[in-house]
Amino acid sequence: MKYSQLFxxxxxxxxxxxxxxxxxxxxxxxxxxxxxxxxxYLPLGNRVLAKIEKIVREEMDKxxxxxxxPAIVPTDLWEQTDRLDSVDVLFKAVGxxxxxxxRNDAEYVLNSTHEEVVTPLAKKFSFSYKDFPFxxxxxxxxxxxxxxxxxxxxxxxxxxxxDLYSFHTSEDDLLDYYFNVATPAYEKVYKRLGIGEDxxxxxxxxxxxxxxxxxxxxxxxxxxxxxxxxxxxxxVYYNQxxxxxxxxxxxxxxxxxxxxxxxxxxxxxxEKLVKFLDIPAYKCVKTLIYKADEKVIVAAVRGDYEINEIxxxxxxxxxxxxxxxxxxxxxxTGAEIGYAGIINLPDDIDIYIDDSIEPMKNFECGTNKTNFxxxxxxxxxxxxxxxxxxxxxxxxxxDLYPETDEEYKIYTAAEVGNIFPLNTKFxxxxxxxxxxxxGDEQPVYMGCYGxxxxxxxxxxxxxxxxxxxxxxPTQIAPYxxxxxxxxxxxxxxxxxxxxxxxxxxxKIEVLWDxxxxxxxxxxxxxxxxxxxxxxxxxxxxxxxxxxxxxxRSETEADIVKMDDILKHVQNCL
Amino acid sequence: MKYSQLFxxxxxxxxxxxxxxxxxxxxxxxxxxxxxxxxxYLPLGNRVLAKIEKIVREEMDKxxxxxxxPAIVPTDLWEQTDRLDSVDVLFKAVGxxxxxxxRNDAEYVLNSTHEEVVTPLAKKFSFSYKDFPFxxxxxxxxxxxxxxxxxxxxxxxxxxxxDLYSFHTSEDDLLDYYFNVATPAYEKVYKRLGIGEDxxxxxxxxxxxxxxxxxxxxxxxxxxxxxxxxxxxxxVYYNQxxxxxxxxxxxxxxxxxxxxxxxxxxxxxxEKLVKFLDIPAYKCVKTLIYKADEKVIVAAVRGDYEINEIxxxxxxxxxxxxxxxxxxxxxxTGAEIGYAGIINLPDDIDIYIDDSIEPMKNFECGTNKTNFxxxxxxxxxxxxxxxxxxxxxxxxxxDLYPETDEEYKIYTAAEVGNIFPLNTKFxxxxxxxxxxxxGDEQPVYMGCYGxxxxxxxxxxxxxxxxxxxxxxPTQIAPYxxxxxxxxxxxxxxxxxxxxxxxxxxxKIEVLWDxxxxxxxxxxxxxxxxxxxxxxxxxxxxxxxxxxxxxxRSETEADIVKMDDILKHVQNCL
Lengths: 573, 573
Hints:
Number of strands of chain A: 32
Distance between the termini of chain A: 18 Å
Shape of chain A: globular
CATH architecture of the largest domain in chain A: 2-Layer Sandwich
Oligomer: homodimer
CATH class of the largest domain in chain A: Alpha Beta
Helix content of chain A: 25-40%
Number of helices of chain A: 15
Radius of gyration of chain A: 29 Å
């Protein structure tokens, strides 16, 4: 491809977007933002996306059948799983104007995920245990009604995704496929994409589907959205959302001080409180009133922690968990919001206390009286020590892995895939069963396996760059070679054109910057675009006997003889 | 691929769907209907679709840059072209439930076409005449809010489409690309898809964009939705919607009869009228009152014709044309709907009369008086003959091409592509101009070029089949070879497996029906699926010295020696 024929040029002065990947990819002419979270893939970006999807497709073809499901489907499919009203990222498609509604006023779901489509589909084609196991996948555009989408390709309202679904006669068979078929296939994908070495598997929440963990493939990346907690002795990564944690020991007072109620008008946040009382947050207790399904409960963590609602939900074994409203708080505590504590509570309320509070002495908590906090509370003396403490704090840096008491190592990372044991959640909704060897109806076990292909493009752009621009892994670079000539000498152009053709004929993908423009601009654009091999033909290079060759990932250039150039380039691919 | 591993089996007893392609493709396991006009592509269908899109992509890559635009975009893009409220197939995407709307209550257009996206995109990257011409294209899912979608893959609510857009500095340059670049590329596509010989170019309406024709690529097909009118001497096909036409001469009475008003209560349709008066429809005049933009006009054709509103609109040079409402008809004619005629009309009304009426004698028309029709009307005696007659009848079989007076040959056909000179319609809306050689701002000329890739799959299924099933052109068949063994003899299975591997290694795509099932069922499924080459290994074929080879398109099978089979198969591809 000649640069002069390429649609969508670099724009070095483009504005800064909300994320590094969006800024870099737009400056380099890979994508164009249509609106927040929605992009056009320009030719360079489209080539990268196509290469990512080709690799994903080749590996998925080994473990499943490719199909292609529709984006719009009847709403009743989503009603059957009770998700039509609850999935808060769901879009629907409706007639856009009066004329359209007059033609057809039906409404359709615009899928954010395809369990509701694939389950009834699979049901149509599998009946007996002999038809199992099997897996189908697709690569497709998905839609999510994101309120703010500020992470470039890493979080889109419309994005590309590969989703695979597997179907099994037992949980064992599901887990066998999950760990021994799908997981290695995913690892192969990331290896081929050039991010294998930096991609780890992290345990994450199983959501409503399973008590087990789901698994995320996370690429370590300084600007990633996720925090991983690594246990070295076990070689296990936890996503922060599920990391079990123990607070490191903090030295406590020797003596018990006198308990005291302190008047502080409007002191309702931890930030205000520590300032007002002039004590550290770890001397305080944060008490929150929750509605867990239909029941009201009290949960408390040490003041320097947040409550991890995923962990708390698991402990409470409830479906819905939300902070109680003002009226409920008042009813339970007798006070306005901001003064709840674990003392002076009604006898009949269930109180859950995080184990970070257990070793505390002379601690603070709300008095359950508006404008009052109590300090110097001590276990036994001022409040009965509960039989059981829990772990529902949001793990943070410095925390220990409870089982081994070793300190976590913390990584930031970006999710590039996730796999999920769905068990019988969706087959139950669609009454999807099979007949076993004894002629009995049994529920089908399912797993789902996602890879956001456009997200991966964003993650790699986010991760693989320097101050001059993008640095693409060879496997997904838009072209292999960025060729340019310096100077408008006819002879130089002729030699460049000859090499351009030779590279082409050798199936090496080459972008030739054929513009009559300054060398500096060509070099800057080449760095910005980030194609792995740069070849420069100039008077100087010819005098030195050939072509200047430089890898984008390195700083030094070499002169390579014209006759050897194909071989040299091929060695780099 | 082994048949036992293939998801989505044949279903010979599946119900009949609304179209032949939907029925055949579902019986053969290529697609699965999710709802009217919305399908899942099963592995076989997905392979066919992918092959069609690969061919389209390869040819389009020669004439444009591939990009990928989003399906959802801000509504203001469609407001700028004044199409948000008028395009009656348009969908919008909105939050599907309360929770979703709470997150983000914005609405987006779900594109049915991408002029509104590509025009502002192109504007960002082209400024000077030096940046032109250029073309970009994409292959993508599109959405149309069809009220009834009863033609299988030939008319979808969600469908796959390739759309290319070209950009030019002049109409001449646009037309040069249109006829000399895009048209040959399209012809190459259809040739490679195996429908080149049956695909013709037909002139069609230019819609609101241009006074010129647009061009449709139409594949001749008995069950097609379109009717083409062919002028042999000119070698030109017209879509019925724009075919100029002259009614063939019908012998008229010698004598003028006495004019007479006939009372006929409630005789308001041509069908009732001809029965009531016992005269043929070609002795009658059909008179309709229209609202053309803000003006009311009268239009009349001979009773056996329909009015072609596309042609009438062109003659009237109006933007909107619709039948007048009851009140307006009453005001103009003084009668209820159904009794309008070209006599007794107010002087100030414009009357347009089709040339089919010119030679008529003793003809009927409405009296413009409720329950009355007038018969034996004659030009000159009862009504002034107008200076000018028009051609706005819908052409029908037997009609003549006015220029040469030759009778049209009629074909039914299915559209497989269309190209459209958009001229400056969209660049005007987006104020998209370029700077010419003299530094002046000039409007950009655009063309658009569509191919419905899923539609093509439907058209080929509709066209290429016999009583036993589908017959795929080799280029887009899901596999090249349908291999099967007859009998569960170990030796036969071993030989079949060996051939399966050899075919595979020779890059021949093979589907092996490895089921332990009856020969009859295997043969029937092979015919239904329609893969071009069938290879059968059985005791009988081995005794005869090899493999039975049969082409799906032929009836006779041959025995081919095992050593020659690869060569024989390759010759068929």
